[in-house]
Design brief:
253 residues, mainly alpha, Helix Hairpins, 2 domains, five-stranded mixed sheet
């Protein structure tokens, strides 16, 4: 059976309390409410991004379609202007004048049809631009909210990191001078059992596993020398014996 000064064993409870607090802070860091909110916001932003890309693409396509429609109207209008100028010049034959007049009529019909197409494209573009404006506004709002929540998360992390730094310093002080073999055993058990390597023996109960020890095990522990490092037969943790009524910072497993 390993041995260590009784006072070192009792001080081990302080180290355990600090280690337990460090675990709690690590859990708090992983489970800040802001993190869940950011996950939700990222999902909403991703969903909205698809709509944003689709809307922007549609607006871009309609702008190109409008440019083509405007170009088609302009071409017909220019052709009609040239024909009208030739007709007005009086330098064409009667036959050509008739042909130009017929063409002007056809061009007027064509221009009217193209202008209808142009107007339809303009109306659809206006509608899609309105949708795009709303989608972009919603996206901007979500991004702004994400920025705000990220700042909240960072502030929470900074506060927890400061607590961890102070805790680390306190832990270094608490472990200083302790029996090296005792600390090594404690660290090994703590790694194996989820962070709790030592616990107080409270009456006949191990506060590590919260189990009542059998009378035979309890008798063996009570008969052990004060410097004997005893362990719980149920969970394997170091059992620290303290005076009845003593207050300790032992963490329960």
């Amino acid at each position: 059976m390993a041995t260590a000064p009784p006072e070192d064993q009792r001080r081990l409870l302080e180290v355990q309390a600090l280690d337990t607090r460090a675990q709690q802070l690590a859990h708090q860091r992983r489970s800040l409410p802001a993190l869940a909110t950011l996950t939700e916001l990222d999902g909403r932003i991703a969903d909205l991004r698809a709509s944003l890309v689709e809307s922007r693409t549609r607006v871009a396509d309609l702008k190109r379609e409008l440019i083509k429609a405007e170009s088609d109207v302009e071409q017909v209008r220019n052709r009609a202007t040239r024909d009208q100028q030739r007709l007005d010049s009086g330098g064409v034959s009667a036959k050509d004048a008739v042909a130009l007049t017929d063409e002007l009529g056809s061009l007027a019909t064509r221009q009217a049809a193209l202008e209808e197409i142009e107007l339809d494209v303009m109306e659809r573009l206006e509608a899609h631009e309105d949708v795009l404006t709303k989608v972009e506004a919603a996206n901007d709002e979500l991004v702004a909210e994400k920025t705000r929540v990220e700042a909240e998360r960072d502030a929470g992390w900074a506060d927890l990191d400061a607590q961890v730094a102070a805790l680390t310093a306190s832990r270094a002080t608490a472990v200083e001078g302790l029996d090296a073999a005792l600390v090594t055993l404690y660290e090994k058990i703590r790694a194996q059992l989820g962070g709790t390597g030592a616990a107080v023996l409270n009456g006949n109960r191990c506060e590590g596993c919260r189990m009542d020890l059998p009378p035979a095990d309890l008798a063996t522990i009570k008969s052990a020398a004060p410097d004997a490092v005893v362990r719980c037969e149920e969970c394997g943790r170091i059992l620290v014996r303290v005076a009845t009524g003593a207050t300790t910072g032992a963490a329960a497993g």
